[in-house]
Specification:
This protein has a 5-stranded mixed beta sheet, with helices on both faces. It has a two-stranded antiparallel ribbon with strand order 4-5. The protein has a two-stranded antiparallel sheet with strand order 8-9. The chain has 15 helices and 11 strands. 53% of the residues lie in helices and 13% in strands. α1 packs across α3, α6 packs across α13 and α9 packs across α14. It has a single domain, classed as Glutaredoxin, CATH 3.40.30.
């Protein structure tokens, strides 16, 4: 048979297979968490091999989360469906807002770390399943950066992204927001604190809700400040640094004006602690940021790299070192978020005469806290009036 007729037959067949697979995933997602649990039971019983690998992809699709065999969490992607499930179960909603999608590798950096540090943690995962209906949505696509070295090597990552967890009642009304990355223990502590109010919220009248919100956030902000002020002095944790690209960019003034904004915005100039902390980062409550066995297993599964030539996955000693550095960074982030970003969320709720809508709270988080407002299409990458020597400043649409 000629090749073209064979291809003409094969393409509809493959399309039919894909459509059938999508229909199967949609049917399982329609079952909610029970459909996911049945897949996970089958997954756990399978030996390592191609069938188990293929089933993992299906599980991710049904859960709507990348690496769901570690987290075992089911996520709604439609807020109305999440609200319906919340009302039926009597649980509040924990909604993740991010750049990109939770079911793809290249979502924004914090959402990727949520999957390792928070969702893969077995105790925290069980707590989330028991107490919340889970939902995620995308603020905008995550900007992707590809660095092509011209010799076949490329680095692919994302830039300019941040994520937050919103606590909503069963009717979708905001009660709290936790901006950025937390240690698993601090994250659970904040959710446990807000949980009683979140459960009670739908039963309260409008004026009582507004009053209770102001009271809760005022008290919580004071308690947070008191807890951290009573802590012991920070420990200085060394963070490895490499030759700083920022230093190289500053060698010539014109090149600096053209390239440094992109280098800084893309985070290509090394860790900010190099100039601020001199190669160390001050950390308190490091024990709260310890990764459990499941989180460590997912970290190892993602094969962090030994950046030698040629690059290759870290050995067990290197993975342990990478995990220790991640724990220190998470501990530092937790303190900064609680005393800085989350404190401002508390202050906003405490001063509001009327409760904010989800959209208004989302605008506060992304515009004022993360400094990536939705009405800036270039996320700070634009360099007005700086001539780059590229046609149209390199913009491609």
């Amino acid at each position: 048979m000629p090749i073209l007729p064979v291809l003409a037959l094969a393409v509809p067949f493959l399309q039919g297979q894909r459509e059938s697979a999508l229909e199967g995933v949609a049917a399982l997602r329609a079952q909610g968490r029970p459909g996911l649990e049945r897949l996970l039971e089958r997954y756990d019983a399978l030996p390592e091999g191609a069938e188990k690998t293929e089933l993992e992809r299906t599980i991710d699709a049904v859960a709507a989360q990348r690496y769901a065999t570690f987290s075992r969490l089911y996520w709604y992607t439609d807020l109305e469906a999440a609200e319906s499930a919340a009302r039926a179960s009597g649980k509040p909603i924990l909604s993740v807002r991010m750049l990109g999608r939770l079911d793809e590798d290249l979502s924004c950096a914090n959402s990727r770390l949520f999957r390792v540090v928070l969702y893969a943690n077995r105790e925290l995962s069980a707590f989330l399943r028991e107490n919340f209906v889970l939902h995620w949505s995308s603020e905008r696509p995550a900007p992707r950066l590809t660095i092509d070295f011209g010799d076949g090597r490329r680095i692919e990552t994302t830039i300019a992204g941040n994520s937050a967890h919103f606590v909503l009642d069963a009717d979708g009304r905001p009660i709290d927001a936790l901006p950025g990355l937390y240690s698993s223990i601090a994250f659970r502590r904040e959710l446990e604190a807000v949980l009683p109010l979140a459960r009670e919220f739908p039963t309260l009248g409008e004026e009582v809700r507004a009053s209770r919100l102001r009271e809760y956030h005022s008290e919580r902000n004071a308690a947070t400040a008191s807890r951290w002020s009573a802590d012991s002095p920070a420990r200085a944790i060394p963070i490895p640094t490499t030759a700083d690209l920022i230093e190289a960019e500053h060698l010539t003034v014109t090149k600096m004006a053209v390239e440094v904004p992109a280098v800084v915005r893309a985070g290509l100039g090394g860790l900010p602690n190099r100039s601020v902390f001199g190669g160390v980062i001050p950390v308190r409550r490091l024990e709260e940021a310890a990764l459990d066995g499941s989180s460590r297993a997912l970290l190892a599964r993602l094969a962090p790299t030994d950046w030698q030539a040629p690059p290759h996955p870290l050995d067990s000693k290197g993975i342990a070192a990478a995990a220790a550095i991640l724990e220190a960074l998470v501990a530092a982030d937790t303190e900064r978020n609680e005393l800085g970003l989350h404190s401002r969320v508390h202050e906003g709720f405490a001063s509001d005469r009327q409760p904010r809508t989800f959209q208004a709270l989302d605008d506060l988080v992304y515009r004022e806290l993360f400094r990536t407002p939705i009405d800036d299409p270039w996320l700070g990458f634009s360099t007005p009036l700086i001539f780059t020597g590229l046609p149209g400043d390199g913009i491609r649409e």
